[in-house]
Amino acid sequence: MGDSPPANVFPDTFxxxxxxxxxxxxxxxxxxxxxxxxLRLSAEIRNxxxxxxxxxxxxxxxxxxxxxxxxxxPNVKAVFEIHQFGSPNGPSANxxxxxxxxxxxxxxxxxxxxxxxxxxxxxxxxxxSEKWLARKFLPAQQNAITTVKCPVQSLFFExxxxxxxxxxxxxxxxxxxxxxxxxxxxxxxxxxxxEKDCIVTKVRMANGKxxxxxxFTEGDSLRRRRTAR
Length: 229
Description:
This is DUF7730 domain-containing protein. Pfam families: DUF7730. The protein has helices at residues 26-35, 43-54, 105-111, 114-117, 129-136, 139-143, 193-207; strands at residues 58-64, 77-83, 92-93, 120-123, 147-151, 181-186, 213-218. By secondary structure, the protein is of the alpha/beta class. The chain has one domain (23-218). Helix 7 links the parallel strand 6 (181-186) and strand 7. It starts with 25 loop residues before the first helix and ends in an 11-residue tail after the last strand. The relative contact order is 0.13.
């Protein structure tokens, strides 16, 4: 990857990626703080508003091959869908979901990490997540991710070919230093409490996190869909 920034980071666009205050913008910043009803609110209230707008969603990363979405680009890209309030059946948002973060520099500074901290990233193919994230996100953004959701079968070698006790956890998320919660989706196979306990033990051991919070949810909505340009 070298020293090049991820493809979706544009240092010159808006000048927003530089979080330190720009000296020639101080007057504008001070004016915004006085004139904006939002910025005049206390930091505690602003943070609650930002959390309500930017948090509580499922952000699903989808690999798109050459002919699916970017026929003129030889590289496999990842696009995302945002399902409000964590419901896979909820409406999928567009780019306006992040519009609040670009209102001004102060709001950008206060909200830039919230989409990673307050949402659940859903991986249909978690074994490729490290490569996708390295191409799309800055290290600080990756490390801010706290919750990941994925199909349980995608974490274990030949999951359906034997008992859980004999399967090996082959997918890990050690590249996500801030990961606290892992939600495992399952379908077409009922898991006993003993099997769930076994899975939790193996996942924690493979990730080197004894305190990793692992939970289960029935159902798997991660069907591959073609997206029109």
